[in-house]
Amino acid sequence: MIMDGRNAGAGERDEAASLKAGTGLLTRRSFLAGSAAGLGALGLAGCMSSDGMSHAEAAKLYGPVPDEKFPIPAIDVSKVDPKYFRRTVRYDTKEAPGTIIVDPGNYYVYRVEEDGNATRYGANVGRDGFRWSGDAYVGRKSEWATWTPPAAMIKRQPEAAKWARGMPGGLDNPLGARTLHLYQNGAYTLYTIYASLDAESIGNGITSGCVGLLTQDMMHLYDRTPVKTKVIVLPA
């Protein structure tokens, strides 16, 4: 994953970024998957999911967050496979409570809880050829971080040059509302766990190694994750 040392992260995940039609803003989806697709229309469905949560309940869980610096819209839960909705599950591990375990092969992120449980979140992960595994830790945390594309990305995607001095935080910023920056041995790995408003990205390999959670899930995890938290990324 090619990034600079300042605020690189989720935005450098893909080589096929494009300008958001009609606005001149670079969209999260275009950086992630090389698509011009936007965030999608908001919608609700009333049926019961296979995991026992109705779409109405999921819509509440992933509803709007109006009091943020940049008000966060609701997730269109009809575009998320119900198996990726946040839930508490049994999880057998010897890791201490609070540890974050990324399972890219199944598109899940777990936060280990007490009594053999874990909070499970659906995720997007690295695409083929960009996945990695190993132990890391949360070296720093960011809210509405500035994103700066590296020179290599600007060379591939000249439209990113307008943000060479940094894209301010906001809904169109690829880092999203919250970011956990992963470190190893005191050095930034250039990988992050970040917030995504793109419902359709969950359950897919679209990044250059970073891991994305739905924004409401990422805020939930972020608030419970202090700096120095251990992070384990399993082999895909």
Automatic annotation (TrEMBL):
GO terms for molecular function: glycosyltransferase activity; peptidoglycan L,D-transpeptidase activity. Transmembrane segments: none annotated. One of its GO terms (biological process) is cell wall organization. One of its GO terms (cellular component) is extracellular region. It comes from the Bacteria. Residues 98-234 form the L,D-TPase catalytic domain. The keyword Lipoprotein applies. Pathway: Cell wall biogenesis; peptidoglycan biosynthesis. Keywords: Cell shape, Cell wall biogenesis/degradation, Glycosyltransferase, Hydrolase, Lipoprotein, Peptidoglycan synthesis, Transferase. PANTHER family: L,D-TRANSPEPTIDASE, L,D-TRANSPEPTIDASE ERFK_SRFK-RELATED. NCBIfam families: TAT_signal_seq. Belongs to the YkuD family. This is Lipoprotein-anchoring transpeptidase ErfK/SrfK. It comes from Microvirga lupini.
